[in-house]
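G., the chain you wanted modeled:
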Amino acid sequence: MSFSINTELLKEREDSRHPAVHASTTRPSRVSDIWKAPLHDFPIRDEILCQFVSFSREMDVLEIGSGSGFTAYWLSHRVRHVTLLDVASETINELSGQLRAATNFSFVTADVARSGLASQLDERFDAAFGLDVFEYLADPEATLRNMAEVLRPDGELFLTFPNTPPPRGDGVTYFDRAENLEELLKKAGFLKWQILVVRPRRFSAAAYRLLHDRPLSFVRDLRRGNLVVRPQTYENTWAFQQRARLNRFKIPLHLYWNVLGHVIRLGGQVFESETPTKEILGKQLVVRAWK
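Predicted structure as tokens:
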């Protein structure tokens, strides 16, 4: 039995809560962002967050797995407060230094799958999200339970993750059927949810491969010889370890990424989505859940 909510009901619910916010309006638009934003390599997964979640100035938001800090940076201009949570203290220390000038950030070192997270955070959120992090969490049931506990009533959890088992995937969590994931959401205390399969539109995917993947192919080549034990954390990545050297090129890189962002958004939304069929292995999934 599927517990997924009806798409039309979901749309009515979202329209009643927040006005529609399109990806092109949620990205950084200030000139100063080119040198103030944390160095990043244009993670296209941010476009999924922009496309599916509406934000407002009254919202307190939790990000699980902070990565480079770029996502939180542009989001901080759109919401009241952002809390960054990461299991790696090195990552949190790095970001707290980079973002120290901002007044609407909090930084927490914690394991999202360990019991007692709600008391450790001592705060509740209007939205919590994790972009391509869930697959690295060895205890998805505990993670979802913790997320439900830290959300305010009617708060939203938003997750993206490639549902790909090893050795093709480098994560440890995946699901054979959507019903297995739905059952965990129900047990965690969520009342409504939606699971989607997403993929970039043909034009957006081609532009991203041409203007992003190919220029950075040498980075991927360097990383192949530096595999880490699963689950992977951001401080193990090549980008984090080479951040001091790469930071010298931040301004031209960010200018280039800004152009790339406009290109992949030509013609509208970057991603298309559909309700999953019986087969979900090997698919990029989006999970939206509400208390």
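The domain at 7-290 is CATH 3.40.50.150 (Rossmann fold).

Shout if anything looks off.
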